[in-house]
Amino acid sequence: MPHAPIPPPPSTDAAHHGLRSDIDWAAVAQELHGLNLITTPRQRRQLSRDFYWYSPILTEQLADCTADLVVRPSTEAEVRRIAAVAARHRLPLTVRGGGTGNYGQCVPLVGGLVLDTTEMLRVLDIQSGRCTVQAGARLHDIELAVRETGQALRMWPSTWRVATVAGFIAGGFGGVGSTTHGVLRDSGNLLRCRVVTVEDPPQLIELHGDEIQQVHHAYGTNGIITEVELALSPAVDWVHVIALFPRYRQVLDCAQACGGGAVHCFLLSAVDARFAPYYAPLAAHFPHDASRHALFAMVAPDSLAAFGEQVAAHGGQVSLSMSEPELEAAALPPAYECAYNHTTLQVLKSDRGYSYLQVAYPQPFEPALVERQMARWEAHCPGEVWQHQEFARMHGADATFGLVLVRWRGAERMYELVADIEADGCTIFDPHALTIEDGGMKTIDGAQIAFKRRADPLGLMNPGKTRGWTPAMARTAEDA
Ligand SMILES: Cc1cc2nc3c(=O)[nH]c(=O)nc-3n(C[C@H](O)[C@H](O)[C@H](O)COP(=O)(O)OP(=O)(O)OC[C@H]3O[C@@H](n4cnc5c(N)ncnc54)[C@H](O)[C@@H]3O)c2cc1C
Question: Which residue of 76, 164, 329, 452 pairs with 222 in a disulfide if CB–CB is 3.0 to 4.6 A?
Fold first, then answer.
């Protein structure tokens, strides 16, 4: 069976990326004296990792990538000092937030300096409809602060207890809340950010509104985000609901009927029955005999009746309906930890024999397509692919994304499956690829590269993560 082109392995050689490898690290450390420097090999190694281990391909490729030095600033002034030192010494510089990215986004391919932002954690200001925070503030901490004012974040990744706001902007896409508010790229969600350039002396650039697209999902290749202003919405005490259905098609139909604002939901996540045994604490609500498929949802209290009507109309039954404090008291996980890439995580925690693919379906979404794919795969490769779809909004329209679990049978088989899914008109956001372009974006973003010329004129930032910077990197997988 033909397979899609497998992205070539990355080069971990500094010279390949136009960078020096003869760096005098003792002199660098001296110039950074007084800052919070991390030098022990074990910590450097730990702070050079993210969740790339979801991919056996990346696990092999990134095993030896380790920072030479890690620095943890707590103010923008310290970031500027670090940026100037990086420019003077021509240091490869990789910014790291919580390190929860899935594709080795913050892994320093050629070593060098890792700038860890997690001490830049202050919530600076909260106003009606907006808040300003330092880049390394964790999203859950920001939520706790803004909740005090009756407001809430519009969206966050299911990793929000660890993930930082700038990591979400530079590495993420959307997440819990995207059912209501669309994705990060949608106008009005990101209001302003401050970016420090890597040159000597560093400049400070303020980006407003849609200008932020220049650094959004750019994997920290074009400037160091130091401060972010986010839009807020009125807080809702979401009810976490599980509804069970005998057939997967019913889950998809129900989620589609509830989406697009028809029912006020913050999360709508369809999960294949085969995941159930991995959701141990939920045995009473998502049966471990894999007899029922599940819809995990976060529903506004005043929409519970409408949600229940849709569930019943599609042949399902609500098996759990609790507020977050009630879930906590019952030691049950919130719905969002059963959704997005937490669904994959539940399985991988106990069985590393799986990996996954990210799928964007043609719009308008047709549940029949997933039903056909399920039937095809169950006929030819039973048990190899388990279904999981997220129902969101993007650019003002409904958007459905799959994070399908795949039994690992080697890279060739994974890319056969990619070709198979693409033949159905779907787009793969490849979680086994290291560059922005081979992952989700598919083409080099000229605006982001133009901004890189301004914010990282020496090409030091996160080398090897964009195909847009050097001619060697610009070659496509087919050329390689
Ligand atoms: C279980 C699980 C669930 C997930 N769910 C979601 C989800 O729902 N939605 C989603 O979008 N993602 C999701 N992710 C991916 C990831 O958790 C999020 O994108 C998260 O927001 C990344 O934040 P972080 O602080 O961990 O970033 P990191 O992983 O530390 O960094 C991500 C990227 O941002 C860059 N970066 C970090 N800080 C800065 C800065 N200050 N300036 C410039 N660049 C910077 C880094 O260089 C890197 O390229 C999930 C991952 C896992 C493991």
Answer: 452
Q: How many Å apart are CA 203 and CA 83, to the nearest integer?
A: 10
Which of these, 453, 454, 448, 369, lies nearest to 404 by C-alpha position? 369
Q: Report d(CA 251, CA 453) in Å as an integer.
A: 47
* Pocket of ligand 1 contains residue 462 by CB under 6 Å: yes
* CA distances from residue 443 to 127, 135, 213, 291, 406 in whole angstroms, order as listed: 38, 27, 15, 42, 26
| pLDDT > 60? residue 154 | yes
CA of 77 to the centre of ligand 1 (A): 24
Q: Is 253 helix (H, G, I), strand (E, B) or coil?
A: helix
Q: Which atom of ligand 1 lies closest to the CA of 164?
A: 25
CB 311 within 8 A of CB 254: yes
Q: What is the pLDDT of residues 172-229, one digit of tens each?
A: 999 999 999 999 999 999 999 999 999 999 999 999 999 999 999 999 999 999 999 9
* Tokens 């029912």 found at: 263
How far does residue 167's CA lie from ligand 1's centre (Å)?
4
CB distance 111 to ligand 1 below 6 Å: no
